[in-house]
Design a protein that fits this description.
Chain lengths: 437, 248
Amino acid sequence: MSKAVDINVKHVTRVEGHGNIVVKADDGSIEKVEWQVPEAPRFFEAMVRGNNYDDIQTIVSRICGICSASHSLAALKAVEDALDVKVSEQTRKLRILLNYAEQIESHVLHVGYLVAPDLLGVKSVVPLVSSHPDLVKTIIAAHRLGNEMMSLIGGRRTHPVSVKVGGFSRIPTESQLKDLKKKLEDSVPKLKVIAEAVLGLADKLPAFERDTEYISITNPDHYTFYDGDIFSTDIDKTVDIHDFESVANEYVSAQSTAKWTKWHRDSFAVGALARFNNNADQLLPLAKSIADMFGLKKGCCNPYFNNVAQIVEVVQVVEHSLKLIGELLEDGLDPEASKPPKVETKAGEGVGCVEAPRGILFHRYKFDDNGICTGANICIPTNQNHGNIQKDFEELVPQFISADKTEDEIRLGLEMLVRAYDPCISCSTHYLDVEFV
Amino acid sequence: MSKPRVAIFDFACCEGCQLQIVDMEEEIIDLLSVINPVEWREAMSEQSEQFDISIIEGSITRVEDEERLRSIREKSKVLVALGACAVTGGVNKLKNNFDLDDVKQFVYKDDAKMPHLNTSKTKAVCEVVKVDYNVPGCPIDVDEFAYIVRCLAIGKEPDLPTYSVCVECKKKGNICRFEYGELCLGPITLAGCGAKCPTESAACFGCRGWVEDPNVNAAKDVLEEYGLTVDDLKSKMKLFGSQQENTI
């Protein structure tokens, strides 16, 4: 084929942050395929230094507006690890519920507001309000539920304020938890409606597969988002989270202000599909049935199916939330059990890890004798996916060109790929542009 | 009256303030009845060169971003700074407490000299261009945002609080956070959030910035009662207000 491909999309839309796609090809030969991240770096790792241990969560939750709860939880766990602070089982369960609230809110926002317009051939959710009013209302209700749950546990829906080192400044009442339980139960049929709507459009997800290393945390007891060890599809034993630097292997790319990562191969992927591929055997029954509905099985390496895995996970966390709330209510809520303890400061270092909606999130902090932060290393999921997006591009673009796709189709296919990863570039520093030079 | 063309732009920030707008859910449809959104990268694919009102999220951290902001200002009849990062510089200004080479070196190590990793001192939007209206807070309060946008759409001057968070906190009937042995920035922080954090059992950490004319004497009395000083307050204000005196 003799067609020249010269596409230059600056700042991919409907993602968090700024990124570019640059592709130049002529006469079937590809000169340039680049995933670029020109977001303005904010230097959180440097600027937390000099701050008190109990201000770290407040600062670093501002890394990301969408996954502020995950950043808060990873930071708190790292501080507690460094200062030897233990939390109660009640606190642990409430924190998991906060993480789940964020999974619901973030996954629904991504699939419903950012990806659905692609599947329905429009440019934003706005025209869907009139063309698909019932579906949009269902998506809004599910999204709102995530936010309400976040407010209830975290004190507000973005940048939680009630989470503290060692506990909570205040916890919900039993009657509030009962209300939440009822709302979560009522959400299940709505989530099925969303899943069925996406299933009806699943043929719009490109049939692209590339064998990929998938990394997440894993836990022998449950499909985990909050605690576990690091696991990869490429290994047969787990790695302790304290050794995360040996997994992430961050490096600087000239294409990006965000760092990239690699482990056993040139790149790896994290996020909903990675968690599914590593932990699908532990899905609860309803979530399992949604995965089956889509024919989603372990070993799926079509990155576009990350969106399907997100739907499965929304159902999983709703199902597990119901179980956790049931246990909390059965044991009876005790405000004393979550009261933040008086912390004795000491020099030390700690690591905290949770699964943010977009994948595994690591925080490491060092403190001096007075509990003042002297150093930090934060490795966020979107950074871990950047290299993999690049590798997908390199394989996808020749396929698109061979299939004689138009420039517009190629652009959309690449933008959809980027969106499939649900990049949170404000986390990773902040940026995403598509440029076909 | 034709609906004003509104564009939202983001600079260095967490995009949490835009998320608050998304989180308005159905209410946003209501707000859309008085404005015409023409560019909003996070939520829609359309782009525009012409707009009446520009809403700027994030702080300005690079020379090239200052240029982009100036170009937006030139095209805007009204410019609104959205959220702490835009209004005061927010947590991003913590960077200014260090030497720029030091922060680059700390994060990027040997690669720090690569040109695409350049950074400048973090600035609030008003340190680069004229700002007409502020929507403070980290994140913003959506009711306040919707109120300001509605006022602008109908050409009315918004009536915003000039008093401190303590006033709203007292109205809520909250027990003072000082009673819990905490350092609360309510006495010196601009109200308008409904004292959200103290109401959720957490001290105010000053995300809305200094109130213009705080009642310093009353604050001193309160602090004295709890064995604290104005310097304690100032040191806590560094979180969201490093070098903020230059911007407020």
